[in-house]
């Protein structure tokens, strides 16, 4: 079924460019990610609060394994599963959470839902023989699916939950990593795979007085149902009756939970620095007939189609399988090019066309706000003035109508570049104090802070005590984005220096397979060390930076946010890392051919050792 382009309005391109520039400038802060406060002893309850499980004390672990996987979300589940398939049996998975799931364990706030279609986002669907219940899955189903992956690969017996790694040190005399934790563990391993995911550590805005507020407060990633009432499965927030509630943040999380808060709180005030792109959700149950007719390989095909729809441009007559807001821009470009007879375009002509279609699509989104929000003043505040993908697009059918309710206020803090302060009883914005009983931080995750804060591990030391954070102080230095010279047997998943797919779980599987292949080879050679040579690492760094897959001008022009490192140094330590320029498919071909050659070019294997059994 072909997906029709959307109808978009005419625009004044020059005027919009100037408006976008002005809107970005007034939100840009010189301190960059330093505007977010680190969770010190006075704020640690935001991170340490465990609302879902109770864990008894246990004896510290001092065992030795072949491989440790740090993280039990999708990245860790896939990496551990691929290691098991590669014959690496003696593994240990460590996670702060009380179960598998990663962000889907912690985030159980009301309304939580995947904003990418389930058939593209949930990994390994064909491998596990699973079909999501809805086109866009809700959080409880995704969490349960993570548990199902854990059972499928037999990972529960290898997992250590409710455990926080505080240091990782390479011991040269033992050729082992020592991984120590807050539970007194000192686990030794030949290989360590880092799978923290980009959304693992909640962040807080560095608002003056944040420690002074005496009311109740929590972060959305640690939702306090004891305070609000309800449960993750039945979010009836009846304990908010008579309460004045504030939400700080208007990204994907707030868009989903704000309608529920408005339903139960006596008064709700939403504080917004930058409005989100909000399009309709239009969720629906999975069609059994459609599912029954799918052919083997359907999910990879769909992942690839989604990736093209976001990052590239469809070739002539390509069918848009996704057909939602993520692929709208390329769908519209394809329709326009078809109407023009697919004439040849220079790069400059194509980029000009793309820019115009981008502005037209965003103008449609702003018109949608006017069609839903009755109060013109609120509607004006809710309109996004930036290019598509400058901020993560959101899809929700209930968020915008919520601002038509008389007990819901919207406070624009863009002029002051954020909230001005807090008192014991409220929030100060625009010189006005707003008294509240509860503050809910929908302020996102540590995706733009420095690497130590993102990983949440104070010490990662390789050969000779070299710090990973010092090694990366001027940017990532890796081979294929997954291993590092001077850090034997240490591997990385996520956005570092590799291929970036539109489907993050597709990228995790690509990385998990590659890492498992290398560790499997090291084990086959007797379990010795493996690491890149200095020359191979330097060559990959040069290759990556000479072909950086970042439209720097685009990101620099965007409104500040985690996608562009708060508008500062957009080529360093952004959420996307340093992507391989030729693209995800080219990178996948490169590392697949590298594996098929069997030469393990650029890697050094140490002498064999007695294997752990």
Descriptive terms for the model:
613 residues; alpha/beta; FAD/NAD(P)-binding domain; eight-stranded mixed sheet; five-stranded parallel sheet; 21 helices
Description:
The chain has 613 residues and is an alpha/beta fold. Among the domains are: 35-58 and 202-276 and 393-444, 3-Layer(bba) Sandwich (FAD/NAD(P)-binding domain), CATH 3.50.50; 61-199 and 448-546 and 576-605, FAD/NAD(P)-binding domain. Helix content is 33%, strand content 15%. The protein is built from 21 helices and 22 strands. The strands form six sheets. Strands 2, 3, 4, 5, 6, 7, 19 and 20 form an eight-stranded mixed sheet that branches. A five-stranded parallel sheet has the order 9-18-10-11-14. A three-stranded antiparallel sheet has the order 15-16-17, with no helix packed on it. The longest helix has 26 residues, at 347-372. The termini are far apart.
Q: What spatial form do the alpha-carbon principal axes imply?
A: globular
Q: Output mean pLDDT.
A: 92
Rg on CA atoms, Å: 24 Å
Q: What is the CATH homology-level superfamily of the domain at 61-199 and 448-546 and 576-605?
A: FAD/NAD(P)-binding domain
How is the CATH topology of the domain at 61-199 and 448-546 and 576-605 named? FAD/NAD(P)-binding domain
Number of strands: 22
Per DSSP, the total helix count is 21
Which percent range describes the beta-strand content? 5-15%
- The residue fraction in helices comes out at 25-40%
Straight-line distance between termini: 53 Å
The CATH architecture of the domain at 61-199 and 448-546 and 576-605 would be 3-Layer(bba) Sandwich
* CATH first level of the domain at 61-199 and 448-546 and 576-605: Alpha Beta
């Amino acid at each position: 079924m072909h997906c029709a382009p959307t109808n978009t309005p005419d625009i004044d391109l020059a005027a919009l460019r100037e408006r976008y520039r002005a809107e970005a400038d007034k939100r840009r802060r010189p301190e960059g990610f330093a505007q977010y406060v680190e969770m010190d002893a006075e704020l640690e309850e935001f991170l340490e609060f465990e609302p879902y499980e109770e864990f008894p004390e246990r004896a510290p672990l001092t065992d030795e394994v072949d491989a440790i996987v740090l993280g039990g979300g999708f990245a860790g589940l896939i990496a551990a599963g691929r290691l098991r398939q590669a014959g690496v049996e003696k593994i240990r998975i460590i996670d702060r959470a009380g179960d598998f799931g990663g962000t889907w364990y912690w985030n159980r706030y009301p309304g939580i839902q995947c904003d990418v279609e389930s058939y593209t986002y949930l990994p390994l669907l064909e491998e596990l023989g699973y079909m999501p219940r809805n086109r866009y899955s809700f959080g409880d189903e995704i969490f349960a699916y993570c548990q199902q992956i854990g059972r499928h690969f037999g990972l529960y017996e290898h997992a250590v939950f409710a455990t926080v790694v505080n240091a990782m040190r390479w011991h040269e005399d033992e050729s082992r990593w020592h991984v120590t934790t807050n539970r007194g563990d000192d686990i030794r391993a030949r290989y360590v795979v880092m799978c923290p995911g980009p959304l693992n550590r909640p962040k807080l805005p560095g608002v003056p007085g944040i420690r002074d507020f005496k009311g109740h407060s929590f972060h959305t990633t640690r939702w306090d149902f004891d305070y609000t009432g309800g449960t993750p499965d039945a979010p009836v927030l009846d304990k908010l009756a008579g309460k004045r509630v504030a939400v700080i943040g208007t990204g994907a999380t707030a868009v989903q939970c704000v309608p529920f808060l408005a339903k139960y709180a006596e008064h709700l005030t939403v504080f917004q620095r930058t409005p989100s792109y909000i399009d309709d959700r239009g969720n629906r149950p999975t069609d059994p007939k459609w599912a029954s007719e799918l052919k083997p390989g359907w999910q990879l095909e769909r992942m690839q189609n989604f990736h093209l729809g976001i990052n590239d441009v469809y070739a002539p007559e390509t069918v848009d399988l996704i057909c939602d807001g993520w692929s709208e821009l390329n769908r519209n470009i394809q329709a326009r090019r078809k109407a023009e007879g697919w004439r040849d375009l220079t790069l400059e002509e194509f980029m000009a066309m793309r820019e115009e279609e981008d502005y037209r699509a965003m103008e449609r989104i702003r018109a949608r706000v006017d069609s839903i929000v009755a109060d013109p003043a609120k509607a004006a505040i809710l309109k996004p003035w930036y290019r598509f993908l400058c901020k993560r697009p959101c899809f929700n059918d209930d968020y915008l109508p919520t601002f038509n309710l008389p007990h819901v206020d919207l406070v624009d803090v863009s002029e002051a570049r954020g909230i001005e302060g807090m008192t014991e009883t409220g929030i100060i914005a625009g010189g006005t104090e707003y008294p509240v009983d509860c503050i809910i931080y929908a302020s996102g995750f540590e995706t733009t802070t420095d690497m130590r804060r993102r990983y949440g591990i104070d010490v990662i030391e390789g050969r000779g005590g070299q710090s990973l954070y010092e090694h990366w102080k001027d940017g990532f230095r890796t081979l294929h984005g997954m291993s590092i010279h001077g850090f034997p047997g240490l591997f990385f998943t996520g956005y570092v220096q590799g291929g970036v797919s539109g489907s993050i779980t597709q990228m995790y599987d690509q990385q998990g397979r590659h890492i498992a292949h290398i560790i499997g080879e090291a084990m086959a050679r007797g379990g010795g060390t493996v690491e890149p040579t200095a020359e191979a690492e330097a060559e990959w760094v040069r290759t990556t930076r000479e072909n950086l897959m970042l439209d720097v001008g685009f990101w620099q022009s965007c409104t500040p946010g985690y996608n562009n490192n708060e508008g500062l140094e957009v080529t360093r330590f952004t959420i996307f890392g340093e992507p391989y320029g030729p693209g995800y498919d080219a990178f996948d071909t490169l590392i697949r051919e590298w594996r098929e050659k069997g030469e393990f070019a650029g890697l050094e294997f140490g002498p064999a050792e007695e294997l752990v059994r």
